[in-house]
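Researcher: I've been going back and forth with a colleague about how Uridine phosphorylase might be arranged in three dimensions. Neither of us has a model we trust, so I'd like an independent prediction. The organism is Hallella faecis, in case that matters for your notes. Sequence below.
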Amino acid sequence: MSTPHNSANPGDIAKTVIMSGDPLRAKFMAEHFLENPKQFNGVRNMLGYTGTYQGKPVSVMGHGMGIPSVAIYSYELYHFYDVEQIIRVGTAGCLHKGMDIGDLVVAQGSCTDSNYLQQYHLPGTYAPIADYGLLSRAVDECRAMGIRYDVGNVLSSDIFYDENQDWRKWAAMGVLAVEMESAALYANAAACGRKALTILTISDSLVEAKSASAEERQLAFTNMMKVAFSLV
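Model: Here is an independent structure prediction for Uridine phosphorylase. You can compare it with whatever you and your colleague have in mind.
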């Protein structure tokens, strides 16, 4: 059955979904990585496609910007479409010198300034983490492909334009980069016993004058896609 945000029918979506914030990046992946892609969703222009990659069924779909958006789409995929694993590919701003535009970050864990985790009423602070099997395989693939990468904690922030520059405090605790979605994705996966991983491309630096163009963000950051599809 369809949901308010997804017009797919049961069986239209593969067990593995590779997601991106930008639905046009999902369209790019469908056109450049999938064999015989078929669109299953266009509600709110949140494009989704299913095809095969090297003979294996896989879907790609956008999830929008921010924790509320990715939380809705990933929840529905896990709970209503029986998806087993979601691999998010996205961009991030690095918090340390020495990281370059185009480098990958494999998000082992995700800190957050969001209140999303409060819904679970846990007696403490929950630490959302990636599925280790997916993470270790992604690291192996980065090495095999000769791709520059780091592994570690990221910050899923509700704030894009941070007037207080609180990211400096996160950087001091070893957090590698800031993005806006992974904490909710990892929490949703944990809550229903499914798998999730985020692979990020550095698109900006918060400590050096480095930034990628909008076109590069949408079309040029293909290394994270290659690694993601290798995990299907």
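Researcher: What would you highlight for our discussion?
Model: I'd start with this: The CA atoms of residues 68 and 183 lie 11 Å apart. After that, consider the following. Residues 67-80 form the longest helix (14 residues).
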